[in-house]
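Students often ask why we bother predicting the structure of a whole assembly rather than each chain alone. The short answer is interfaces. A chain on its own may look different once its partners are present, and contacts between molecules only exist in the joint model. In this exercise we take two input lines together and write out one structure for the complete complex. Read the inputs first and try to guess which parts will touch.
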Amino acid sequence: MENPELLQIENLTVHYGKDTALQIEHPISIRKGDRVGIIGANGAGKTTLIKSILRLVNYQGSIHTNLTMEQIATHMQFNEYTDTMPTRYIMEAILQTKISQDKKLQELISYFEFEDCLRKKYSKLSGGQKQRFTIIMVMMQDAPLTFYDEVTSGLDFETRQKLVEKMVSWYKNKDSSLCIVSHYYEELEHLANKLLILDKGHVIDYGKKDELFQKYCGRAVIILNYSKEKETVFQNYEKLASPAHLIALSCETEEKEKEIIELLLKHNMDYTRSSSDIEIIYTNAKERYSKQNSI
Amino acid sequence: MKENKRKTVSLSMITYELRNVTGNPFVHIFGIGLPIFFLFIITRIVVSNLQDTSLIKTASTSVFLGISTIIPMAMILMGYSVIQSQDLEKGIPERLQLFGIKQHITICNRIISELIFLSAAIILYFIVGIIFMDLQTPVISGIIIYIFCILIFSTICFILGHAIATLLRKFSLTYCIVMLLYFVFMIFGGMMGITYENMSAPMQAVAKLLPVTYFNKDFYTIWTGKSYNFVPMLQSYLFLGAISGVLLFIALKKDRRKGNLS
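Now the answer. The structure tokens for the assembled complex follow.
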């Protein structure tokens, strides 16, 4: 039995002036426990979709939900706060609590190692600290549905990785639904179980990550960093669409996979095997959509 | 399903807004320092030009009452609108709204905190006035009407400031416009050297439409309980209130069209 539905989007259109920023024709539903990774290039309509759900932009169509606005938590791409006081006062006012009396908030502050930042003003925080500040408050809301819009953009690799690890472990045993917009696919590998693929305001596909992988990539894929030598070695093997710096070899059967791996070992070539790679799903889904729609 | 707390006007949000107001250097310089500085300077100039020393009390009290209008003008019209425009530019009200704090709740919290800080500034101004100036003791009705008028004037300043900031949504533009209005109110109110009597007829026509003029020109009469025709003063409040109300209406309409929930 499927989990209860939290949100349904149907025939949604958003215009910015004369431009159509988003057009969703087929229904999309987000259910309890879904972890939806929203992916697409810049201008695909990812943030517009979130803003529509939050009623921050005007739209035509229907977004049906029984959730109240208080039951939806959001981490926007840009989050700004007043600079006239230390962050602890902002946090206490927004969450309407006292840090000294709130065990859960204390736990979150310590979990995100934010103790020393509580005395600082928002503008004095680093990029990662700013993100953690909003994440703490968003997590404190403990909402049934939470949006994270490019939560790690602008952060260095180490900070990004640490932040995502913390988020993954925080949500591990929780049944809250998440919608995460990100350009970093490796983050979504850990956080998302569904994907919503957008391109130029249109939905390319929406579904479970493993089902989408099977649909666009087959059983498994072996990914290599591109080189002329590798291209020559595998010239007769079936390839999937991939970014220019990669070669993605399709492994439709176990035998085929073994054959490829033997060849790789023989030539002492590094490789990655995946049955869920989001970047390859995205590239192939986009290519198939372009062909079908003759773009 | 967990129902998150709906955020309403609360002590914690009022305290937050109060910290926001006091963290703005504009209000300390222009709303507290400047009126007290002007009080000393202008009273000294006016009193030194008086030939009849029996009029010192009258002159000092008139200057004291007139200058007090700088407090709401600087603190609310200028200070609030500048903070509000900065917040709008950064998207802070939208961010608070996503945390469940609706804009009308934020506005209510702000009005309350602004009025608390304004009251504290006026009390400080009165303490300085009582200690250092030779002021005329008011009649009860005089002090009640003064409090009522300053509160109404402050509320109009809030509406006007909020409307300007919401319409312009940019700190630089808002600052420019409210600074201009601040000086216009001071010049036409008779606080920048030209008294109402010395103004040209067109200037007097404009001055009559501003409540500050009556604080400066006539409030001594009300303060001392003498007979006074309130109609022109009432008209000035209605006029400025109506202008501010219309601007606020346009601003909120524009805001809704943009998709921002109020």
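Check your guess against this: The domain at 5-209 of chain A is CATH 3.40.50.300 (Rossmann fold).
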